[in-house]
């Protein structure tokens, strides 16, 4: 009687020990990835231009997803802070008190004030959301809030263009409407991304600071002249 | 620590990644028990540097926050044991913090609107004054933080000596967090008041401000009654609380809405008039006449309301 011990090699069985050590927040691209989210190619040998272009494309895709908020995963899974930085710097540059024409000083917000309001404001809103028990990470939330400034930045550009003409009540009303639309769009977009991360009995408590954050920034945009 | 996600570990890479250090919403049952904390002992378990320690101050939901705001605006709406049963058991920092921030920005925005409307008709090239945000922030945070600390110290210091056969409530002083919570929520009524003060009629502005000060003063005294009863200096504390409310309200109106007060002043003649709207810096500090008028009004109202509270207490 032969007792045969069959030893089979695990060649093609489903990987029980294989898996992905994908660290949360690791930067992956949405193109050319295996199902595990790791790029197939070796990024060490490629020219720098391709690396930069890939990141720029990722940022551009996120801007697109903010403007048409249908798909959530790209901002949340592949968060990055380039977009918020670009937007914040752009808005702070335009919004800073350009009082060189008059003798008055310190009337509009300084560059640093806008910067602080955007970043510290996003951090405080995120902290509030986490303290209330939300299950979203810090940087994901800051990323979403930063990218959702895109409509506000667009309304700032439009207001700046309107300000080139001589001001009348109609133009002020136009600016008001533009700013309101940007504010509503930004709040709606961030609600789409962040709204699911809170339990329902606390959702208004978490949404109100987001509303306040965009309201303050829209106010800065509107009162800029 | 995995509490509920242990059966999802195979599918993680393809999903939206959530990176949360074992946070639980209050409605989820605590299943795995290594760090399971029983409900009542939550405060002692976490170190000061973790997020969980501060989560205990945010254990509120929408309904509770709205109820606390409502209780802070309407006197006598809360029960007699509101301070001990409700606020002390669950002091929250969500309300005070966000109400303060909202108030700061509503004051800054309304003040700018008021000064814009004052100067809109002239050739004066109006500029947004961003310094107001910093000033408003200073005032509001002093009120919301320094005042409760002072009051807490006074309560502790002035506790009447307790005989051992008296009730437990005779040795009660409110905790610092409860006082911060109460004072924070009492700011709620100033938000609509600050928005309505852009109306350029001095009578309405003063009326709004006085009503707000009355309501908050009453609410504060009513809520703190269990603690005031145990204090040696009850009368002085009452006078102090009320007068601080009036000084705060009047000061806030006279500083932040200076420009619109000038246009509508039929009621108070001592507000200093401006020479010309083309001055480069329209902001002036409060003069001696304003302080004297504020003192006279303050004394009058304080007399009326001390007698009222002495009757009710």
TrEMBL record, chain A:
Residues of the signal sequence? none
Query: What does the UniProt entry say about where the protein is found?
Result: Golgi apparatus membrane; Membrane
Cite a single Pfam family from the UniProt record. Answer: Yip1
Q: What is this protein called?
A: Protein YIPF
Residue ranges occupied by any Yip1 domain in the UniProt entry: 68-220
Which GO cellular component terms, listed alphabetically, does the Swiss-Prot or TrEMBL entry include? Golgi membrane; trans-Golgi network
Q: Which InterPro entries match?
A: Yip1/4-like (IPR045231), Yip1_dom (IPR006977)
The protein's topology relative to the membrane is: Multi-pass membrane protein
Source taxon at top rank: Eukaryota
Where are its TM segments located? 111-132, 144-166, 172-193, 205-222
Q: Which family does it belong to?
A: Belongs to the YIP1 family.
Region (Disordered) residue ranges read: 1-41
- UniProt main location, coarse: Golgi
Biological process (GO) annotations held by this record are:
endoplasmic reticulum to Golgi vesicle-mediated transport
The UniProt keywords, alphabetically, are:
Membrane, Transmembrane, Transmembrane helix
TrEMBL record, chain B:
Sorted alphabetically, which InterPro entries does this protein's record hold? Answer: Yip1_dom, Yip5/YIPF1/YIPF2
According to the UniProt entry, where is the signal peptide? Answer: none
The text of the family note is: Belongs to the YIP1 family.
Protein name from the UniProt record? Protein YIPF
Q: Which UniProt keywords apply?
A: Membrane, Transmembrane, Transmembrane helix
Q: Which domain of life is it from?
A: Eukaryota
Which residue intervals define the domain Yip1 in the entry? 87-250
Annotated region described as Disordered, given as residue ranges: 1-29
- Gene, per the UniProt record: LOC108079778
Record's bilayer topology term:
Multi-pass membrane protein
The compartments listed are: Golgi apparatus membrane; Membrane
What ranges does the record list as Polar residues composition bias?
17-26
Q: What is the lineage of its organism?
A: Eukaryota, Metazoa, Ecdysozoa, Arthropoda, Hexapoda
Principal place where this protein is found?
A: Golgi
Q: Which residues cross the membrane?
A: 93-113, 133-155, 176-195, 201-221, 233-257
* Keyword Nucleus (UniProt): no
Keyword Transmembrane helix assigned:
yes
């Amino acid at each position: 009687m032969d007792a045969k011990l069959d030893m089979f090699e695990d060649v093609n069985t489903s990987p029980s020990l294989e898996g992905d050590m994908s660290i949360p927040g690791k930067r992956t691209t949405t193109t050319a990835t295996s199902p595990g989210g790791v790029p197939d190619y070796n990024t060490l040998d490629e020219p720098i231009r391709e690396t930069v272009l890939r990141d720029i494309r990722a940022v551009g895709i996120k801007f697109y997803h903010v403007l048409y908020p249908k798909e959530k995963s790209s901002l949340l899974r592949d968060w990055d802070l380039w977009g918020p930085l670009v937007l914040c710097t752009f808005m702070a540059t335009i919004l800073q008190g350009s009082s060189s024409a008059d003798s008055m000083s310190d009337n509009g917000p300084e560059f640093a004030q806008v910067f602080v309001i955007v970043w510290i404001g996003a951090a405080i809103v995120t902290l509030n959301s986490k303290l209330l028990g939300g299950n979203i990470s810090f940087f994901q939330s800051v990323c979403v809030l930063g990218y959702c400034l895109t409509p506000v930045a667009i309304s700032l550009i439009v207001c700046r263009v309107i300000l080139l003409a001589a001001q009348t009540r109609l133009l002020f009303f136009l600016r008001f409407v533009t700013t309101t639309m940007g504010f509503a769009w930004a709040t709606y977009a961030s609600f789409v991304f962040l709204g699911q991360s809170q339990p329902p009995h606390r959702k208004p408590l978490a949404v109100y600071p987001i509303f306040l954050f965009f309201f303050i920034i829209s106010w800065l945009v509107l009162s800029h002249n | 620590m995995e509490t509920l996600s242990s059966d999802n570990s195979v599918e993680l890479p393809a999903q939206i990644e959530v990176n949360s250090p074992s946070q639980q919403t209050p409605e989820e049952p605590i299943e795995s028990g290594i760090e399971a904390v029983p409900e009542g002992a939550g405060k002692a378990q976490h170190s000061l540097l973790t997020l969980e320690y501060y989560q205990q101050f945010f254990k509120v939901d929408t309904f509770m926050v709205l109820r606390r705001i409502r209780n802070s605006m309407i006197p006598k709406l809360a029960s007699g044991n509101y301070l001990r049963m409700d606020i002390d058991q669950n002091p929250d920092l969500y309300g005070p913090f966000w109400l303060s921030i909202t108030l700061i920005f509503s004051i800054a925005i309304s003040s700018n609107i008021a000064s814009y409307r004052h100067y809109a008709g002239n050739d004066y090239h109006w500029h947004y004054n961003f310094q107001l945000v910093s000033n408003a922030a200073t005032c509001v945070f002093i009120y919301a933080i320094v005042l409760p600390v002072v009051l807490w110290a006074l309560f502790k210091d002035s506790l009447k000596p307790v005989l051992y056969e008296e009730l437990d409530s005779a040795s009660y002083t409110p905790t610092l967090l409860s006082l911060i919570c109460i004072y924070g929520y009492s700011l709620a009524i100033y938000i609509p008041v600050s928005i309505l003060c852009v109306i350029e009629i001095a009578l309405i502005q003063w009326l709004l401000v006085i009503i707000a000060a009355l309501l908050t003063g009453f609410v504060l005294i009513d809520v703190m009654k269990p603690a005031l009863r145990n204090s040696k200096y009850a009368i002085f504390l009452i006078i102090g609380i009320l007068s601080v409310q009036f000084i705060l309200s009047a000061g806030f109106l006279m500083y932040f809405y200076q420009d619109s007060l000038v246009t509508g002043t039929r009621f108070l003649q001592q507000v200093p008039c401006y020479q010309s709207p083309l001055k480069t810096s329209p902001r002036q500090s409060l003069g001696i006449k304003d302080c004297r008028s504020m003192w006279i009004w303050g004394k009058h109202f304080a007399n009326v309301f001390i007698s009222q509270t002495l009757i009710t207490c």
